[in-house]
Design a protein that fits this description.
This protein has 20 helices and 11 strands. By secondary structure, the chain is of the alpha/beta class. The chain has a 7-stranded mixed sheet with strand order 3-2-1-4-5-6-7, sandwiched between helices. A two-stranded antiparallel ribbon has the order 8-9. The protein has a two-stranded antiparallel ribbon with strand order 10-11. α15 packs across α18 and α15 crosses α19. The longest helix is centred in the middle third of the chain and has 30 residues. The structure holds 6-phosphogluconic acid. The site of 6-phosphogluconic acid has 12 residues, from α8 and α12. The site of 6-phosphogluconic acid (6PG) has 12 residues, from α8 and α12.
Length: 475
């Protein structure tokens, strides 16, 4: 019973996480359904720390100190349930099962409840940062009971990435809260990448720049307020040349973006919660559209505009459009976390989420420290757009944001992320929205009623009887 923690499922993520524990001095039990992976881990990396390999679940569980802490690193879905069913009967009350996969938060809620009834803690944990993050310090988003976090938290905080000495790991909230936050993280990741792609496309098609020139633009942007992991790797990918053809890599890759589902879940959940996450939705839809090869093939005959090219000095404007749209996407994502937290009673600290995303994860960025500061200044700010410093930046960016959106439309470059984010900005700041007209139409065709700006109550107008006063229907 020497192992402080165990990892079952030794794919790349599981293996690297186990190595991270071992490198931090924790004796770590390791187990995999097929033994070859366990053996390979010991052979290749056994010298990095104290690994306790186990052939069977029974031996694995027996090697763990109590309360046992077991991290499950298998493909989200049915495999997770299968592993839980295998291990749960071997555990004792107080033991802790951690799911480090990209599970849907509703599944995590179900699993947590079932295991709680058996006295076992279930900790649904978001882990971001890919293979390298798992090994060198990921961003970790654990949900579940506070009691479980007391045992687990210090170890996770130890192996997490650090920014200014602060770990990129914090208790998120009960049951599905951790996986919910990870889901929204991924939704924001989709939006971030879509906006980067639009900036690239606008510069490529609009301003006629080459991938290598655009790589240089991104390199410069990465020294400013856009500094982030995704902008950094955009430079690398755009600079890359295909070995076989010598062409830019981006020109030989099939332009159909794939997805495993977390971005889609973010939007589906937002629809249920009634939170407008239009920037994230556009990113998910843009990936779907790219995959509709048949539709795209048939539609290729549609004419585009015949317009002039853009100046390459336009890159500065594109930076503003990208930045402003990014602020909108993050504001929408944080609103979704706020709404999920209220719906499920999770009491999530939004500033803490920005804090643990500053390092380790895919969306890590200098910018997240600003979001942390915004929530520190006003934990109840209803939208990040209203935070004084973001509001100021958006107002300064808006001329360029509008110009780029118009220029993209004029040149026939699709920029749904830029334009929907701008529409969101304009809708939120509007004095009056045409929603009033929609209410009128609803009342006309279905007596769906409306409220007035000048009086309390719910009303219906007798549209077929002109002159007849409206009726108050709520008394
Ligand atoms: C992370 C990533 C990761 C996710 C990939 C792929 O935080 O490390 O979000 O968890 O699996 O980004 O997602 P898609 O295949 O859906 O693009």
């Amino acid at each position: 019973e020497r192992a402080v923690i165990g990892v079952t499922g030794l794919g790349v993520m599981g293996r690297n996480l186990a190595r991270n524990f071992a490198r931090h001095g924790y004796p770590v039990a390791v187990h995999n359904r097929t033994e070859a992976k366990t053996k390979a881990l010991i052979e290749q990396f056994g010298a990095e720390g104290e690994f306790l390999p186990a052939e069977t679940p029974e031996a694995f569980v027996a090697s763990l100190a109590r309360p046992r802490k077991i991290v499950i690193m298998v493909k989200a879905g049915a495999s997770t349930d299968a592993v839980i069913e295998e291990f749960a009967p071997l555990l004792e009350p107080g033991d802790i099962l951690v799911d480090g996969g990209n599970a849907h938060f509703a599944d995590t809620r179900r699993r947590e409840k079932a295991l709680r009834e058996r006295g076992v803690h279930f900790v649904g944990t978001g882990i971001s940062g890919g293979e390298q993050g798992a090994l060198e310090g990921p961003s970790i988003m654990p949900g579940g009971s506070r009691e479980a976090y007391e045992h687990l938290g210090p170890i996770l905080e130890d192996i997490a990435a650090k920014v200014d000495g602060v770990p990129c790991c914090a208790y998120v909230g009960p049951d599905g809260a951790g996986h919910f936050v990870k889901m929204v993280h991924n939704g924001i990741e989709y939006a971030d990448m879509q906006l980067i792609a639009e900036a690239y496309d606008t510069l490529r098609q609009g301003a006629g720049m080459s991938p290598a020139q655009i790589a240089e633009v991104f390199r410069v942007w990465n020294t400013g307020r856009l500094e982030s992991y995704l902008i950094e790797i955009t430079t690398v990918v755009l600079s890359h040349r295909d070995a076989a053809t010598g062409k830019p890599f981006v020109d030989v890759v099939l332009d159909q973006a794939e997805q495993k589902g977390t971005g889609r879940w973010t939007v589906q959940t937002a629809l249920d919660l009634g939170v407008p996450v239009s920037g994230i939705a556009e990113a998910v839809f843009a990936r779907s559209l790219s995959g509709h090869a048949g539709m795209r093939e048939e539609a290729r005959v549609l004419p585009g505009p015949s317009g002039d090219g853009l100046e390459s000095s336009f890159a500065d404007d594109v930076e503003q459009a990208l930045y402003a749209s990014k602020v909108v996407a993050y504001a929408q994502g944080f609103n979704e976390i706020q709404a999920g937290s209220a719906e499920y009673g999770w009491d999530i600290d939004l500033g803490a989420m920005a804090t643990i995303w500053r390092g380790g994860c895919i969306i890590r960025a200098r910018f997240l420290d600003r979001i942390r500061a915004a929530y520190e200044a006003d934990p109840g700010v209803p939208t990040l757009l209203a935070d004084a410093s973001f509001a100021d930046e958006l107002s300064r960016a808006q001329r360029a944001w509008r110009d780029v959106t118009v220029a993209a439309a004029r040149r026939g470059v699709p920029a749904p992320g830029f334009s929907s984010s701008l529409a969101y900005y304009d809708a939120l700041r509007a004095e009056r929205l045409p929603a009033a007209l929609i209410q009128g139409l609803r009342d006309y065709f279905g007596a769906h009623t409306y409220r007035r700006v000048d009086r309390d109550g719910v009303y219906h107008t007798w549209w077929e009887l002109p002159g007849q006063p409206e009726t108050r229907v709520d008394v």
